[in-house]
User: Which sequence fits this backbone?
RNA sequence: GCGGAAUUAGCUCAGCUGGAUAGAGCGCCGGUCUACGAAACCGGAGGUCGCAGGUUCGACUCCUGCAUUCCGCGCCA
């Protein structure tokens, strides 16, 4: 286990009752060692799980089965000895030995409900941790070419990348969000030629239409604006159309600005904000591309063949060598890619995560190989990658393949227009990145519990509604008063909700460590279900005042956790729906 | 052909980095509102975790092979 992973584990466990139990078990094991029953302690601490089946207790431990062989004792016998040796404590009410040798622990109910106080006292800090310890991490995502509107795949990247960033921030990392902007290279020429052709009144059926031209309707809009002399204000530039159909440079600049502006607006509507847009063109301007080539040459990793310059990427695990400089003199895309990642390293990011579509997966080996070839001390597995699979869009039972704006692919803007920002973000982030995603537009619009976004948001709105009603009677006093009566929270549905609330810090830490934001989405679905069950089983605003106040505190804590969890996904937590 | 990802209920998907009788939602069947928000809740039926081996106290999870699907595989980006 790496030092980092080990630090993470300790940090995560500190926030739950797991470490308390782990400490008790470790004490017992030490005792057994001193008695000569065990030869030594295990390398890692005892593994403690939350059983799925309630009859197996609140926590369980497999340590007896792990140590049985080495100790020469039957697992169940060893389990008995461990239980008998456990120090006195208030955490565990009782424990069982089950199956082949599991030790099942039943936690005292007060430890479950105590989390309500913790949540209300910590507020927004509940669920956060500090295993990042303020270290820097860069997350690069979206990085779309400025040749058209963002498509649904970019949307998935935006949702995952931004949520990852939020998770890392919540676990103590200092995150920089970066968008790599491919504003140089052949595809930009194709863009300029396409706009020019439209400016000349040609359409894609015209015999002189550029070979790799972009055919979408948005090209016509750009051409019309350029010829009309419109001004375009994008985040990093303002350009006025020169209206000269022969000036390809002016067209290029104008078109890039137009599409940059459109992407900016899409991302704004999606509530995703970047700290830095890194321009590919700057790598040429600064000489970084040239420098990359000469460094790789000096390091002896290149060779010339058929008038081209090659990098021996096979030295670093690639299946074949790659061309760096084409025989006609230009560089392949992979050279600026290496220069770009080198710049990340030079900027001091010892940890970098690239969120990309899985269709780019073959560049990973190449980029890493190029970075190794530079021989500047970059670790082999640097940078990290999170790859997401394709997205298909379904509507009324059929796949949607056409979009008005592009003439082809469905855009992120289409999705936002159809179902709103919240539902779009939730659905795009709620599935494991490695699985292909079917985005069902009708499902995202449904207002029932088949739609998890509304299901979770509805739970939040319900909490707010109850709290509002209680406040009309006695202000906020009820909630704080309830902390004195948490022992009243003793029904199964109520305890189950409290247990779920207590899991939140583990879920956040684990999702951040595994770089899997969908864990949070799944957790929120379960938490909302627990809340709805509790809500239907027990009237909050009725019964004994002490019970009511305790339940109000529980509701306030639930509201807090749902809001925090939704925020990690970039989804709003409405008070009313 | 090579590389990557996937394969779990009729459908869409989880499965906590090896644990106990594999879970949700939808759909299907049956219940619950003169209402703290029914956008909700409760119950039922539904599975050979693609197939075959292996590793071990224990495999949906790890390893090997096979099958199927998707994505890449240019001196394009």
Assistant:
């Amino acid at each position: 286990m790496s030092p980092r992973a080990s630090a993470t584990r300790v940090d995560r466990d500190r926030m739950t009752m797991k470490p308390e139990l782990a400490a008790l078990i470790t004490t017992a094991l030490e005792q057994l060692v001193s008695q000569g029953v065990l030869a030594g302690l295990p390398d890692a601490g005892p593994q403690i799980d939350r059983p799925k089946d309630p009859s197996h207790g609140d926590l369980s431990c497999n340590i007896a089965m792990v140590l049985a062989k080495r100790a020469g004792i039957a697992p169940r016998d060893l389990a008995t000895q461990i239980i008998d040796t456990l120090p006195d404590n208030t955490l565990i009410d009782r424990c069982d030995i089950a199956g082949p040798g599991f030790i099942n622990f039943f936690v005292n109910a007060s430890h479950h409900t105590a989390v309500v106080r913790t949540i209300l006292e910590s507020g927004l800090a509940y669920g956060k941790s500090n295993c990042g310890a303020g270290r820097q991490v860069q997350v690069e995502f979206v990085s779309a070419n400025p040749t058209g509107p963002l498509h649904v795949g970019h949307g998935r990247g935006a949702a995952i990348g931004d949520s990852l960033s939020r998770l890392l921030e919540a676990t103590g990392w200092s995150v920089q969000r970066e968008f790599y902007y491919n504003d140089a290279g052949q595809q930009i020429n194709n863009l300029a030629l396409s706009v020019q052709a439209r400016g000349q009144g040609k359409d894609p059926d015209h015999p002189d239409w550029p070979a790799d031209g972009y055919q979408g309707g948005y090209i016509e809009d750009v051409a019309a604006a350029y010829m009309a002399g419109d001004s375009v204000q994008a985040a990093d530039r303002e350009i006025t159309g020169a209206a000269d159909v022969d000036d390809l440079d002016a067209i290029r600049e104008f078109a890039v600005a137009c599409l940059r502006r459109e992407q900016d607006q899409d991302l704004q509507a999606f509530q995703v904000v970047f700290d830095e847009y890194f321009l590919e063109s700057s790598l040429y301007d600064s000489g970084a591309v040239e420098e990359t080539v000469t460094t790789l040459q000096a390091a002896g990793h290149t060779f010339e063949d058929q008038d081209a310059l090659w990098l021996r990427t096979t030295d670093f695990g690639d299946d074949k060598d790659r061309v760096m400089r084409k025989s006609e003199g230009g560089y392949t895309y992979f050279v600026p890619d290496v220069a770009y990642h080198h710049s990340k390293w030079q900027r001091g990011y010892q940890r970098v995560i690239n969120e990309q579509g899985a269709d780019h997966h073959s560049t990973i080996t190449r980029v890493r190989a190029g970075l190794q070839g530079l021989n500047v001390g970059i670790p082999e597995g640097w940078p990290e990658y999170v790859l997401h699979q394709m997205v298909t869009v379904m509507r009324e039972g059929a796949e949607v393949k056409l979009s008005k704006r592009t003439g082809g692919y469905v855009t992120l803007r289409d999705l936002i227009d159809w179902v709103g920002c919240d539902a779009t973000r939730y659905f795009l982030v709620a599935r494991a990145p490695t699985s292909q995603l079917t985005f069902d537009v009708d499902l995202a619009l449904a207002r029932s519990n088949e739609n998890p976004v509304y299901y979770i948001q509805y739970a939040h709105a319900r909490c707010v509604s109850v709290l509002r009603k209680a406040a009309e009677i006695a202000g906020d006093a009820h909630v704080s008063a309830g902390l004195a009566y948490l022992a009243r929270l003793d029904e199964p549905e109520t305890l189950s909700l409290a247990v779920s609330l207590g899991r939140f810090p583990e879920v956040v830490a684990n999702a951040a460590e595994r770089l899997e934001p969908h864990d949070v989405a799944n957790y929120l679905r379960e938490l909302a279900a627990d809340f709805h069950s509790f809500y239907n089983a027990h009237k909050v605003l009725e019964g004994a005042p002490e019970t009511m106040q305790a339940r109000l505190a529980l509701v306030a804590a639930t509201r807090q956790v749902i809001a925090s969890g939704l925020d990690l996904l970039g989804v709003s937590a409405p008070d009313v729906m």
